[in-house]
Design a protein that fits this description.
This is Binding-protein-dependent transport systems inner membrane component. The chain contains 14 helices and no strands. The chain has 284 residues and is mainly alpha-helical. It has 2 domains: 60 residues; 213 residues, MetI-like (MetI-like fold), CATH 1.10.3720.10. The longest helix is centred in the first third of the chain and has 39 residues. It is globular, with a radius of gyration of 24 Å.
C-alpha cells in the first residue's frame, strides 16, 4: 500500500471518528434535559433542590399519583391529541393539494411562490395570535377545538405544502398523463394515482405535523380558557399556581407525560419519518 493511499485511509478513518463523536455529543446534549426531567419526576422536593445534585435517591411515585389530579391531566391530554391530530389531518389535506398544484400545474414562479409561503413562517407567532383571538372572540368561537385546529393550520400548512411538493416533483409526470389519457381529470388523477403512491410521504408529513402541533403553546394559551386547554397549558398553570415556589417534582412528572407520546411515536416511525422528510425536503 502506497503512502498516499495509507494517508487517505487514515484521514477517512479520522473523519469517521470525528463524525461519530460529534453525533454522540449532540445526542447527549439533546437527551440530557429529558433524562434530568425523568429523574426529577421520581424525586422528593428536597432531593430536587439539593446542591450538589443527588443522583442516587429513593424513587417515589407521589409526583405521578398525588399531584396530577389538580391539573386535569387526562382531559387535557385528550384535548391535545384531538387538536394535534385534527390540525395534522386538515393541514395534510389542504397543504397536500397546494403542494401538488405548485409541483404540477404550470405556474410562472411556482417555486418562488412556494418559498414565499414557507417564508411566511418567519412572521412572529404573537403577530398572528392576537388578531386570531380578536376575530374568534368577535364571532364567539373561543375555547373550541375547531378554533385551535384552524389556528394550528396557519403554521402547519406551509411546512406540509413544501414537503409534499418535494414528493410530487420526484414522481414521473407520465403517471398522471396516462391517467388523463384514460379519461381522468387532473383532480381525479391526483386522488386515484398520486395520493396512493405518495402515502409514505403523506404519513411522514402527518407525523411531523402532529409532533409540531403537540408541543405548541402560544395559540392554545391565547385561544382557550377551560374546555379546549391542552397539556402545555396545564404545565403553565401548575408552574404559576403555587405560593411556596414551583413544585418541580409535579412539573417534571407532567412534563414527562406530555413528551412521552411524542417520543414513542417518533421511535415507532423513525425510519419512515427520516426517509420521508429527507426526500420531501431535498427532491425538486
Amino acid at each position: 500500500m502506497s503512502a498516499t493511499t495509507s494517508g487517505s485511509l487514515r484521514r477517512r478513518h479520522t473523519a469517521h471518528r470525528a463524525r461519530v463523536i460529534t453525533g454522540v455529543v449532540i445526542c447527549v446534549l439533546f437527551l440530557l434535559p429529558i433524562v434530568w426531567m425523568l429523574m426529577n419526576s421520581f424525586k422528593e422536593q428536597r432531593d430536587i433542590m439539593t446542591v450538589p445534585p443527588v443522583f442516587f435517591f429513593e424513587p417515589t411515585l407521589d409526583n405521578y399519583l398525588g399531584n396530577l389530579q389538580r391539573a386535569d391531566i387526562g382531559p387535557r391530554m385528550l384535548n391535545t391529541a384531538i387538536i394535534a391530530v385534527g390540525g395534522g389531518l386538515v393541514s395534510i389535506l389542504l397543504g397536500g393539494m397546494a403542494g401538488y398544484a405548485l409541483a404540477r400545474i404550470p405556474l410562472r414562479g411556482a417555486a418562488t411562490m412556494g418559498a414565499l409561503i414557507l417564508a411566511s413562517r418567519g412572521v412572529p407567532p404573537i403577530a398572528l395570535a392576537v388578531p386570531m383571538f380578536l376575530v374568534a372572540r368577535a364571532i364567539g368561537v373561543t375555547d373550541m377545538h375547531a378554533t385551535v385546529i384552524l389556528a394550528y393550520c396557519s403554521f402547519l400548512i406551509p411546512y406540509v405544502m413544501w414537503l409534499m411538493r418535494g414528493f410530487f416533483l420526484a414522481l414521473p409526470k407520465e403517471l398522471e398523463e396516462s391517467a388523463m389519457l384514460d379519461g381522468c381529470s387532473r383532480f381525479g388523477a391526483f386522488w386515484r394515482i398520486i395520493v396512493p403512491i405518495s402515502l409514505p410521504g403523506f404519513a411522514a408529513t402527518l407525523i411531523f405535523s402532529v409532533i409540531l402541533a403537540w408541543e405548541e403553546l402560544l395559540f392554545a394559551l391565547v385561544l382557550t380558557s377551560r374546555d379546549a386547554t391542552t397539556i402545555s397549558i396545564a404545565i403553565v398553570g401548575m408552574a404559576s399556581d403555587t405560593q411556596t415556589g414551583a413544585d418541580w417534582g409535579a412539573l417534571s412528572a407532567v412534563g414527562m407525560l406530555s413528551v412521552l407520546p411524542v417520543i414513542l411515536l417518533a421511535l415507532a416511525v423513525q425510519k419512515w419519518l427520516i426517509r420521508g422528510l429527507a426526500d420531501g425536503a431535498t427532491k425538486g
